[in-house]
User: Fold this.
Amino acid sequence: MSRSRLRARLVPYLLVLPGWLWLVIFFVVPTLVMLSVSTMTGDLGTGFKQTFHWSTYSDGWRLYHVQFVRSIVYGLIATAICLVIAYPVAYWIAFRGGRHKSSLLFLLLLPFFVSFVIRTQSWNFILSDNGMVISRLKDWHWVGQDFHILATPVAVIGGLIYNFLPFTVLPIYVALERVDPALLEASADLYASKTAAFRKVVLPLSMPGVFAAVLLTFVPVTADYVNAAILGGTKTTMIGNVIQTEYFTNLNYPLAAALSFILMGGLLIGVFAYAKSLGTDDVLDMAGA
Amino acid sequence: MTALAGEALEASLNEKPRPAPRTGRRRAGRWLLPAWSWLVILWLCSPIIVMIIFGFNNTKGKFNTNWQGFTLRWYHQLFAIPDLTSALKNSVSIAVIVTLIATAMGTLLGIALGRHRFRGSGSVNLLLFANIAAPEVVLGASLLSLFLTLGVPRGYWTIVIAHVMFSIAYVAVTVRARMAGLDPSLEEAARDLGAGPLTTFGKVTLPMIMPGVMAGALLAFALSIDDYIITSFNNGSTQTFPLWVYGAAQRTGGSVPPQVNVMGTLIFGFGVLLAVLGAVSNRKKV
Assistant:
């Protein structure tokens, strides 16, 4: 093999190297370190020692399974509602957007130009117990005097839907945008009704986008804790809040690490099982990976 | 937060309009779909509108909760809160550094994965996917575990490290998508005409993937300046804009000083301006 052939074979590895190294050192290695921390015992004063104390995992589940289950339930509800809201919007932009498609898409992405914390904070402000919305409703006697939205699951799930909706719209839009309009004309020529054309042509072709949307919405929603922290109360605590508290308030690093691992393990296994069961390529491709 | 955002952003900035298919009469769909979509867009924008309006509120007390008349005072006193100002400075400078590093590394990754077939490319793709799919709280917590174990003091540079870590994959997949759509025969033609590998890259490859690189960079900047969760695990005592806002809201039970609204408005305006300018300059080139 000539020297230049060898060099050409090395090129992709050299290109990949810096980014790959960064990800290995600051993503893969930390995950392994966290795995190791999760089985340590001790406390911050005397230091943590590796004792392969695996029961931290069962303790973590026993203590916080309520928050785990709640996070998953919130995640499922928010994802389902996001799909119902997002599909018609994506459909409208992809098929009826015409010349304004780019501008409409841009409008959907506008919230990304404002900090996530500020947007969520803004909802806290809009929905606050004596804020502009609730106090009007009370004035009109549409709701009782002790009515409130903040600190309820409605506020938290609403905030989650709000914050992650664009992640549901985009993959569905991308999938719908790839549907060839000629297919619709063909189905019309074959005497398919509008509904039939949608059910038999558009919907199946957009499914990879829907699956990717589920993935991109469900994972961050389930692990989020900012919405629960800003819009929720003590009865809406999610698992992200618990992990954060264990790290920073209780300084129980092993438990926090074990909880993170249960969360990530559960989500990753779920994601890969989901991707495999639907055909990996389609889903991973639509998810942009 | 997702590569798709990058792709869609790129699409929204570069797209050549496709004519809508001609369909016959359509009763409910004619107004129901647009009405629904505009409602959703309005809903998405409503907290932004509230943020902008309350940046002009002539509030007297400490709390910015009731409308008390129009003022430009907060624009004049934008930097009156030193901690907030330094938090904003940190956010902007971190975002710039992160954008440069992550765009460079991510672009190289994207080129390699989009163009070359090599042993191990599957595992690199998987690494990128796992990085994007992993929940933020876990990314932040595991990086904190590393820093705690090694005894690394947390602060400005650990935030930079963390932000680069979660931005690289987004840039890479955005560039990879662009790269995969390119016709390799253009580069072959350049080589046939005697251009060396570097010339080919600089004169042919790079200009063609530039929209992808720019979209990736924009995404990295937006992700970095907006991040709360991962930063909150690795900031030490260094404050960034989102961290400061969150802290202020927690302290006061949900009210933030009007300067926050003004800064949010300015960042918003700047971001929109950049995106629109990018779109206009791309249109001219095409």
